[in-house]
Design goal:
The protein is mainly α. The chain is about 70% helix and about 0% strand.
Length: about 110
C-alpha cells in the first residue's frame, strides 16, 4: 500500500506536530531556529553570506539531533522540504506566543 502524499500545509501541519511531540525535540528545534534567526540578522548587518549559511547549518544540526536521537523519526524535510520549513517557523512562533508548548502529552 502506498502512502498518501500530503498536498497542502493545512494537511501537513498536524503530521508535523506529531513528528515533533517530544519535549527535547521541540527544544532542539527551538534552539536551532533561534540561532538561525540571530545569524540571519547578523548576516544582513555584516553583509556576510557565510554567516547566513552557518545559520542554516545550525538550524538543521539541532533539528536533526532532535529527530535522530530524541524523537527517533525521520525529519519531514526529506519528503516535504518547504512545508517542513514553514512548519518549523510556525511551531517556533506558536511556542513564542504560547499557542504551543514544549511539553506535549501523547
Amino acid at each position: 500500500m502506498t502512502e498518501k502524499k500530503i498536498a497542502t500545509f493545512e494537511e501537513f501541519y498536524p503530521f508535523y506536530l506529531d513528528q515533533h511531540s517530544h519535549f527535547w525535540n521541540r527544544i532542539t528545534h527551538f534552539i536551532g531556529t533561534s540561532i538561525f534567526l540571530f545569524l540571519a540578522v547578523l548576516a544582513i548587518v555584516k553583509t556576510d553570506i557565510l554567516i547566513f549559511f552557518i545559520g542554516i547549518f545550525s538550524a538543521y544540526f539541532f533539528a536533526w539531533i532532535g529527530h535522530f536521537f530524541i524523537e527517533k523519526n525521520k525529519p519531514a524535510t526529506f519528503k516535504y522540504p518547504w512545508m517542513s520549513l514553514k512548519g518549523d517557523f510556525k511551531l517556533y512562533f506558536e511556542i513564542c506566543t504560547g499557542k504551543q508548548k514544549f511539553n506535549v502529552k501523547k
